[in-house]
Write a structure and sequence with these properties.
Layout: H1 4-9, E1 11-18, H2 23-36, H3 42-55, E2 60-62, E3 65-66, E4 80-90, E5 100-107, H4 111-126, H5 128-136, H6 140-148
Parallel strand pairs: 1-4, 3-5
Antiparallel strand pairs: 2-3, 4-5
Helix pairs in contact: 2-3, 5-6
C-alpha cells in the first residue's frame, strides 16, 4: 500500500511498542531515530521537546497521535520521518487527545516540505483500519506492513 503520502514522508525507521515513561522520553526516542538516520542533529531533538514546553501539546493532532517536530533551522539535515508506537499510552497534556500511543516525528527542510509532511501524517488518523493495524503491531515488520503494506520496506 505505497501511497503518495508514504513517499512524501521519507520514512526512515519504525519501532513498535517502545517503553518510555514521559512525553519527553517519547519525543527523545523518536528523535534519536531521526538522528541515527542522519536526518537531523541532537539540537533538533532538543528543539522538538522545547516546542512542547513553550507552545503546549499542539502536536497531539488526533486522539492518541502525536507529531513532534521543530523548525528546519533547528538542525534538519535532510527530510525524514519516524513512526513509533508506545508500549503504554502517555499523557502529553492535551485533554482532548491524550493518552498518546503513536508518535510520528518528522524533520522537514523547508516550509513546503513541512506542509507536505503534515498533510501526509494527518491522513493516517483518518484511515481507521490502517490506524488500528498500526496500533496492533507488535514488532517492526508488522508496523511496516501496517503503514506501507510491505514488511520488507
Amino acid at each position: 500500500m505505497n501511497t503518495p503520502e508514504d513517499a512524501r514522508l521519507h520514512t526512515l525507521d519504525v519501532r513498535a511498542g517502545i517503553s518510555v515513561s514521559t512525553w519527553r522520553e517519547a519525543v527523545e526516542a523518536a528523535g534519536s531515530l531521526l538522528v541515527a538516520a542522519g536526518s537531523c542533529t541532537e539540537a533538533y531533538v532538543d528543539a522538538m521537546a522545547a516546542a512542547v514546553v513553550e507552545l503546549g501539546p499542539y502536536m497531539v493532532i488526533a486522539p492518541g497521535v502525536a507529531m513532534p517536530h521543530a523548525r528546519p533551522e533547528a538542525g534538519v539535515i535532510h527530510p525524514g520521518t519516524v513512526v513509533v508506537t508506545l508500549a503504554t499510552p502517555l499523557a502529553f497534556g492535551n485533554p482532548a487527545n491524550d493518552p498518546v500511543d503513536l508518535v510520528i516525528a518528522f524533520a522537514a527542510v523547508d516550509k513546503n516540505a513541512h506542509l507536505e509532511s503534515l498533510q501526509a501524517i494527518t491522513a493516517l488518523p483518518l484511515d481507521e483500519p490502517r490506524l488500528n493495524a498500526v496500533r496492533a503491531a507488535t514488532n517492526r515488520h508488522e508496523l511496516r506492513a501496517a503503514l506501507f503494506g510491505d514488511p520488507a520496506r
